[in-house]
Specification:
Layout (H helix, E strand, L loop, with lengths): L13 H9 L5 H11 L2 H12 L4 E2 H12 L9 H21 L3 E3 L3 E4 L20 H21 L8 H28 L8
Antiparallel strand pairs: 1-3, 2-3
C-alpha cells in the first residue's frame, strides 16, 4: 500500500523524516500538521477507527464506522446516504490529507495507520473538561507518595503504621490505579460501536 508523498527522500513524507530526526513530538511543524489533521472530527474518527483495527481496513468499513459514530447509531442501522456521504469525503478529502502528512497509508480503497502514527496518539487522548488526564493523576499520586514517605522517614508524620506499612499502602494504591486504568482502556477499546470521546 502506498501513501501520497512529496516525492523526495525515498518516498517518505516530511512528517516521517522529521519524526526520525526529532525523536517524536518535538517539532512545532509536526504539531501544527497534527492539529490541522485533528481539527476535523471526521478525520479524528477515521484515525481512531484505524487505530483500533488490526492492520489495513477497507475504506467502506472505515466509512461505515465513522458514519455510525457521527450519527450515534450502530453500523447496522446507518442508511446508504449516511455511509455514502462519509465514504466520499474520506476518499476525496480526508484520507488524502492524512496520507499527505504521513499519518495513514491510503491507496484509494484501503487505509492503514503509518508507522509514525502511534507517536501522535497522545493528541487523541482527549480529557473531559471536568476530569484530569491519567498522566496528571499519576504525577499527583507520585508527588503525594513522595511527600508522605519523606514525612514518615523523617519521623514527622504520626506513625500509626510502621514505614514499611506506608510503603505497602502506596504500592497497593498504585497497583489498583494501574488496574483501573487498564480496565478503562480495554473497555473503551471494546466499545467500537460507541462514538469515541472527542
Amino acid at each position: 500500500m502506498s501513501s501520497k508523498i512529496d516525492g523526495s527522500d525515498n518516498g517518505r513524507t516530511a512528517l516521517q523524516r522529521r519524526s526520525d530526526t526529532n525523536d517524536g513530538l518535538t517539532g512545532s511543524d509536526d504539531r501544527e500538521e497534527i492539529f490541522t489533521i485533528l481539527s476535523n472530527s471526521r478525520r479524528r474518527y477515521a484515525w481512531r477507527c484505524c487505530r483500533d483495527a488490526d492492520g489495513a481496513m477497507e475504506l467502506g468499513d472505515v466509512a461505515e464506522q465513522v458514519a455510525a459514530w457521527e450519527n450515534d447509531k450502530s453500523v447496522e442501522t446507518i442508511t446508504s446516504d449516511e455511509r455514502k456521504r462519509v465514504y466520499t469525503s474520506l476518499q476525496q478529502t480526508h484520507l488524502p490529507k492524512m496520507a499527505d502528512v504521513g499519518i495513514v497509508e491510503f491507496d484509494g480503497s484501503t487505509v492503514e495507520l503509518s508507522d509514525v502514527a502511534g507517536d501522535y496518539d497522545v493528541f487523541l487522548d482527549i480529557v473531559p473538561e471536568d476530569d484530569i488526564s491519567w498522566g496528571e493523576y499519576y504525577l499527583g499520586l507520585s508527588g503525594l507518595s513522595g511527600v508522605l514517605l519523606a514525612l514518615v522517614w523523617a519521623g514527622i508524620y504520626p506513625s500509626v503504621l510502621p514505614p514499611l506499612g506506608w510503603a505497602t499502602i502506596l504500592v497497593v494504591v498504585f497497583g489498583l490505579s494501574a488496574a483501573f486504568h487498564t480496565y478503562r482502556s480495554k473497555k473503551r477499546k471494546l466499545r467500537r460501536e460507541n462514538p469515541p470521546e472527542l
